[in-house]
Amino acid sequence: MKKIFFVILLFSLTFSLKAASPGIKATVVDATTLAPLEFVNVALFRQGSDKLVKGAISDKNGIVDLPATEEGDYVLRVSYVGYKTLKKEFTLKGAALDLGELELVSKSKKLSEVEVLGQGSQMRFEIDKKVYSVDQNIAAAGGSASDVLKDIPSVNVDDQGNISLRKDANVEVWINGKASGLNSDNRIQVLEQMPAESIESIEVITNPSVKFNPEGSAGIINIVMKKEHKTGYVGSLTAGITRPERGNPGKNLGASFSYNSSKVYAYVNMGYRAKAVEGGKNSDRWNYQGTDTTLLKQTGTNSNTTSGIFMRAGIDYHLDKKNTLSLSGFGMAGSGTKNSATHSILSEALYNSSFPLKDYNQYNEATSNRPSMNVTMDYLHEFKKKKSNIAASVSYSNHTRDINTLYQKIMADSTFKSNITQATGNKNTEFEFKVDYSNKLTKESKLEAGWHSKFNMRDNRSSGSDNLNSNLPLTANYTDQTNAGYITYGNRIGKLTYQAGLRAEYFTRQFSDTAYVLNETDKSVQNYTSDPIFHVYPSFYLSYLLPGNAAIQLNYTNRVNRHRGKKIDPYHDYSDPNNITYGNPYLMPEYSSAMELNYIMTRNAQTLSASVYYHNTDNETETVSYLNNGVLYNTFLNIASSRKTGLELISKNRVFRILNLTSTLNMYYNKLDSASFIDPFNQRNYIPGSSGFSWSGSMLANIMLSNTLSGQVTVKYDSPQIISQGTENEKYAVELGVRKTFLARKLSVSLNVRDLLNSNINRSTTSGSGFHQNISSYSHGRMVGLTVSYSFGNRKQKQSELKKQDASTDIIENESEE
Length: 818
What we know:
The chain has 818 residues and is mainly beta. A hairpin with a 3-residue loop joins strand 36 (631-655) and strand 37. Residues 1-22, 108-120 and 797-818 have low confidence and may be disordered.
C-alpha cells in the first residue's frame, strides 16, 4: 500500500513539474475576514473583448495560477456564489505577474445604505471538508443543534439522538474546532439544548489531517458558532412553539448579544428549551430451546419530558495587532422525566396457545439531571510573516448526569409485584492543552506542527434494591491520558497541491470497578489496566487543478476509536427484564484506514462533487446479543474486521435564479467478517459473516419567492443496511419550512413542519443462537413549529475597511440580485 502512495506521489509531482510555467498569479480572499476562498472561478479576457483567453479556479489557500500568455491589456473576472463578481484590469509585461490579494465582497453586505439581497449558498467545498450554512436552514428554525444535523447530507440522527456519518456511528462532534468534552454519552443532551440560532455552520470532515485528534473513524462534525465580524453591537430575541403529533407543545426562548470594536469582541447567547413527546416500541422475539419455541410479544408506550437552559459566552481581547487573548465557554442545566409502560406476553409459539406462559406489565419511571460546562482560554500570536502564527489553548470540561429509576413489574394473573429501584450517575471531567504552530514558509508552502495533551476521567456509580434482595453500591472509575505531537508540510507546484503529515501518540488508560458483596466493608475490586499504546498516524492529501474549473483530490488517513462510557461500564440496565444491556471493560481500540478520491467541478452556478472512499477497520466493535434462560443479554464485543467501499455524489444547482438545490447520493458496500464468542454462561455463540449494498439520498431545495419570502423542502431516504446479527430497515422523511421577514429584515417569522409523513420509525431484525427478533420504535411523529425572531444593533464596517475600499482600484461589478 505504501508503495502505491509513493508511486502516485512521484507521478503527480513529475507531471506537475512538467506542466508548471510562469504566468499570472493572485490570491482570492473574503473582503471581511481576509480568509482564503477555495474553488473560486477566475476568467481572463482581453480588454474590450468578451472572448475567454484562459480560466482557472483557486486552491485551498485561495491561490490561482494562470499559465503564461502574451503581453497586453487584460481584465481578470473573479466570481463566486454568494459574492459580488470582481473585475481587475491590468497590463501584462513580461512572463509573470503577481496581482496580490483580490478581495471578494459578500452579496449581502450593506453599502451606502442600499441593501443588496440574495440567497446565500447552502454548502461550499474546501479541500478537506464540506461546510453547510445553518442560516439557510429554515426547517430547523426554533430547533436545536440535533435538528440542524438531521438536515446535513450524509449525517443521520436517530430518534434517540445518536449521530452517525455515512452510517458510521464512530464520529467525533466538536464545537468551534475543539472536542469541548463531548462524547457519545453526553453529547445527545448538550446538542438537544443548543439553540440552532446560535450556530453559523456545520463542517463535515470525513478524512481529517493529523493536526486533529485521530479519534472517530468516520471523521469529525464541527459545529461553528456564530461570531460577528463588524464593529458595533448586535443582538436578537427569539421565541417559538412546537406542536408534536404525539405529546404536548414544546417551547423555546433565546437571546443573543455581541459587541465588537478594534480592541474587544464580546458575546453572550442564552436559550431555554422544553419539550414533551410521546413514542412507543413493539417487538416480537422467538426463543428456540431444543424442540420448544416460545414467542415473546411486547408492546409499549413512553413519554419523555425535558427542559433546560443553555448559555454560551466569550470575550476576545486584542492586546495589540499581533496578540489576542480569548476566554470562552458554555454551560447547561436541565432536567427530565421518562415514563414507560410495556405489556409482555410469553406463549407457546407453535400452538398459538390462548393461555400464555407469562403475562405481565412493566412500568418504569425515571428522573434525571444533567449539568454540563466547558471553559476554554486561547492565545494567538501573529508573526510579522503573513499567515504565520502560534496558537495555544487550555480547556476544562465537566459533564454530569444523575438518573433515579423505579422499575415495577406486575403479573396479570396474581397480586405479585416486583419493585426494583436503581440510582445511577456519571461524571466526566476532561482537561485539554493544545499548541499549534503555523509557518507560511513561502507563498506556496506551509509548515505546521503542534502538541496535544488530554486527560479524561470518568466516575460512575450505581446502587439499587428490590423487594426481595438488596443490592449494595457499585462504583466504576475510568481514566485515560493522551500525549501527541504532529507535523505537516504542504506545498504547491504549479497546479498540484500536496500535504503530508505524521502524528505520534502515547496513550494510557486504567479502569476499575468496586462491588460491595455483603456490606460496605466486604467488597470485590477488579482492575483493568491496558498496556501503554504508542501509535503513529499518517495522513496524505493531494489536489490537482484540471481544465474547466475542476479539481481532483486524493487523501489517506489512519484513525482510531477508543471506547469510553457505557460501552465499557459493566453496569447492568434492568429497564426491561427481558433485555438486559451492559458494557465490556475489555474492549480494544478500533484502528481504521481510510482513502478517498474526490472530483470537484464548478461551472457557472453548478457544482458537482464525486467521492470514492474505502474504509478498513480492525477490531470492529458491534452490539451482540445472546440468550440465556429466556433473557436476552446485549453487550459490546470486538468481533472482527469490516470493510466499506462507497461512492458519494453531491450536486449544487441554481435554477432560474430563485431555486438552490443541494442533492446527495451515497452508495456503499459493507462487509463484516464472521466471528464467535463465549458468553458468561459458557455458551459459544456464532456470528456469521455478512455483506450488503446500501444507499441513502437527500435533496434540499431553497426557494426565494421574493426578497422577503423564502421556502425550503427537504427529502431524505435511507435504504436497508446490514448490522451485526441482522439488518436495519429503510427510513424516509420529508420536511418543509417557510420564512417571511418584515421591518427591513429585522423581524422574521418561520413556520416549519418536520416528519411531514409520520415516517420516522426505526425497524430492525436480528438473529442469534436460539432467538430471532423484530423490533420497531417511534417517537413524537409530525411536528409543526412557529418561530419569531427580532434582530437589533448598529453594525457597521470598520473605518479601515471603508478606506481600503475607497483606495481600491478594483472594479466591483453591479449585478442584479435574486
